[in-house]
Design brief:
The chain is mainly β and 124 residues long. Helices cover 0% and strands 57% of the residues. The protein is elongated, with a radius of gyration of 19 Å.
Length: 124
Amino acid sequence: MPITNKIDRLVTIADSEIQVPMDTQSIQPKKAELYGADETSSQSISLDIGGFKLVEVVCEADTATTFTVEYSFDNSHWFTYYSSASAETSYNDVFWTGAQYIRVSSAAAGSAGDTVSLIAGAKP
């Protein structure tokens, strides 16, 4: 049976002669990042988590703002997971999801020179 180009290597199981194909690309974390963006404008990142279930979100801002974390099953209809009740300078969370997409955004705040950073990552 031919090995497809998605399989990066073969893994030997328990020092036996049995080898199982392993797609090492599928175990690499997925990440969307936005660093030092202008906080005077609203900012947003989105990530196709590709079937991964564990999501980590990190948001940091120079000036207090509101952050929103949303999820979607089809990249069209979005549901709010988290929305700041009041302005804050940071938000961090780790959660499980069955959704395919994650979106993280910040509202416009601050003055010239203020920045915001948004990170969304997913692991198997």
